[in-house]
Specification:
Elements lengths: L1 E2 L22 E7 L8 E7 L7 E9 L3 H7 L8 H8 L12 E9 L11 E5 L10 E5 L3 E4 L6 H5 L2 H13 L8 E4 L4 H12 L4 E5 L4 H6 L4 E4 L12 E6 L6 H5 L2 E9 L8 E3 L16 H12 L1
Parallel strand pairs: 9-10, 9-12, 10-11, 12-13
Antiparallel strand pairs: 1-4, 2-3, 4-5, 4-7, 5-6, 6-8, 13-14
The structure holds NADP nicotinamide-adenine-dinucleotide phosphate.
The site of NADP nicotinamide-adenine-dinucleotide phosphate (NAP) has 25 residues, from α1, α4, α5 and β10.
């Protein structure tokens, strides 16, 4: 997690500029100069962005370093996707050298058309395509995936929600999970899996959580009905059957996972080559393909509602 030491909490503004921000048209940023390991990352400065008519500028307080950032930085994409990745993000190095898709902070400037937000609002959200959140200031489309930080939640706490929360929400919706349906989550202790676990429990589904032995107790605390230690057993050999399997790991082949899927059940693979919702058998409800999470404000509101009310 990157936090910028501004010594303020949501709702209580105490501006305290960090030294290199004193030139007001510059900002501190974490720069990723080329593709590679963590050594390609350095701290530098960039022009401070100016909001367009429909944009807001967020003074960033905390931003997580996600598995997505690591994969982009190191060009770690599935077979055949590397070339596409380079075309999309820059051939030799990232076109936008600032990683980070999740932001929390305080709005410090708004574009002339923006009515929904005011300077001083404490907000959080996700900008999956734009990146650029590992910097002191981030421009965000005012209609994007952005929400007020719920009362009592710190900037760091809010920063932990959008990546896993929105991804889990997107994939669970794709699976059309209904209350009472049995869900198995492979990778239930990860960022996306732990969010899916809490969202599904809040929505009334009994959840079987697959994770390492040291995290079983935590998965139970989050609401799992059953837990499976992947170091001791293989969930595809369970006698149980599930309505939905949410796979965030990709370490079992589809055929094996279908063995523990009920007739009419849905398998939602989140990574690797298995990128669509697979129904079994053909009578399964039509499910939308779930390739990438598209972050939106409705999803963010849903995550907040289910986890904080
Ligand atoms: N398509 C999209 O839009 C999208 C969006 C976000 C993420 N993703 C992808 O989804 C994947 C998961 O992301 P994440 O942020 O949740 O990752 P993460 O936080 O690193 O979590 C990984 C999870 O996998 C578990 N795990 C590791 N080996 C396992 C095994 N052999 N069997 C079962 N579980 C195992 C870990 O369990 P322990 O910690 O208990 O060992 C942990 O719960 C990543 O590949 C990411 O790129 C895709």
């Amino acid at each position: 997690m990157l936090t910028i030491d501004r010594t303020i909490r949501p709702g209580r503004v105490q501006e305290k500029a960090i030294p290199s921000e004193s030139a007001c048209d510059r900002m501190v940023a974490v720069l990723c100069s080329q593709y590679g390991g963590p050594q390609v990352v350095s701290v530098g400065d960039l022009p401070r962005p100016v909001p367009g008519p429909d944009e807001i500028r967020v003074r960033v307080m905390a931003s997580p370093i996600t598995v997505g950032d690591r994969r982009i930085r190191s060009l770690d994409f599935p077979q055949g996707m590397k070339t596409l990745g380079r075309v999309a993000m820059g051939w030799r190095r990232l076109r936008n050298p600032v990683l980070g898709t999740v932001f929390t902070g305080q709005i410090d400037a708004v574009g002339k058309n923006v009515r929904a937000w005011r300077a001083g609002d404490a907000v959080f959200g996700r900008d999956g395509r734009g990146m650029g959140c590992h910097a002191a200031y981030k421009l965000v489309n005012s209609l994007g995936a952005i929400a007020p930080i719920p009362a009592g939640l710190s900037f760091e706490g809010a920063a932990a929600l959008p990546f896993g929360g929105l991804t889990a929400m997107h994939f669970l919706r794709s699976a059309q999970l209904r209350p009472g349906e049995r869900l198995l989550i492979n990778g239930a202790s990860g960022t996306c899996g732990a969010a899916a676990l809490q969202l599904a429990v809040a929505a009334g589904s009994p959840v079987t959580a697959v994770c390492s032995g040291r995290k079983l107790a935590w998965a139970r605390q989050l609401g799992a009905t059953n837990v499976v230690d992947y170091t001791a057993s293989n969930f595809t050999q369970l006698p149980d059957q599930f309505d939905v399997i949410f796979d965030t790991v990709g370490n079992h082949c589809v055929a094996d996972m279908l063995r523990v899927l009920k007739p009419g059940g849905r398998l939602v693979p989140q990574r690797g080559r298995q990128r669509a919702v697979v129904g079994q058998p053909a009578s399964a409800p039509a499910a939308r393909p779930a390739r990438h999470c598209r972050a939106d404000a409705a999803g963010l509101d849903g995550v907040v509602l289910l986890q904080f009310e």
